[in-house]
Amino acid sequence: MKKWIWLMLLVLMTVAAVGSRGSTFFEPRPSPTIVERIPVETREPQAESKEVDSAPQVSTDKLLTHIQKLNFQRYTTKERSLTRTYITTELTKFGWKPKLEKFSEGVNIFAERPGTDKAAKAILVAAHYDTVALSPGADDNASGVAVVLEVARLLGSRPTPRTLQLAFFDKEEAGLLGSQAFVSKTRRLQNLGGAIVMDMVGYACYTAGCQKYPAGLPVTPPSDKGDFLAVVGDTEHLPLLNAFQSSQMLPSNALNKQESNLPAVLTIPIPFKGLLTPDTLRSDHAPFWYQGVGAVLVTDTANLRTPHYHQPSDIPATIERSFFTGAAQIIVNATSTLLNKNQVLETQPPS
Length: 351
What we know:
two-stranded parallel ribbon; 9 helices; 10 strands
């Protein structure tokens, strides 16, 4: 077996899964008491990041406004319809022409901005918009929806070689139904180079022991603090993961460098389409893997970190402002990089 496969398997052993029924990591944690506000711990200083001109700066206020506007349970048919109205209205404001795509159990939202190179394959940025019952889902997954809307605002009018596509999936919590319906359109996938899927990107904790890992790890975990952004991808499309490894550079037009401090990124390559680790298949990136399309899941690790997973306490006050802004900036940076470089996104064999 080639050396790189052994290396991927070693990395694989350090991290397990993306949650059950969609957006979770491993076993659910106990239900917390509902809180109105959580004090945010002081971030530890990080090394100064390099500057880059390729991506514009995200707006914390706009991101948090989306979270507030979506501060309601998005579970029933009526609630999900109201959510679609908000999303499509915002996209229209930004100059997009969103389309509703119905499937038997729900409705996805899709929009596209063509690139300048017709031969270049598209990049999709996506998140699910539904919640479980009784949870307003600020982190799960209004945070992901907010980032996709910010990508739409910042990158929608910027010409790039690659086409930029946006998708908002319905019924993720019912078993990835929206993303499965999306990838069933095989003709669309022919021009899709890769997908970036967000599922919970707004929660962080900075005290020792607040980040959990599965029992029995053969190596020391990278940190016992929940201060990093995890990016899970398949080893067949490593250039997608590589875009996130270099995404921590700040845009040169950042208004306040200190407030724009970006979290660390932990990239996790998964071999064999997750066959050896089925828990890594439990979010909307997985259907793309099984259609041969490269996809990454970007997450704050869900219930391995937050006590509010699938709870009524998943409210806007529990979003960690600094981490959420940094996570959004990393996603915008990586998306911009992928849109502007018409590189092959499939992993190339060693030379």
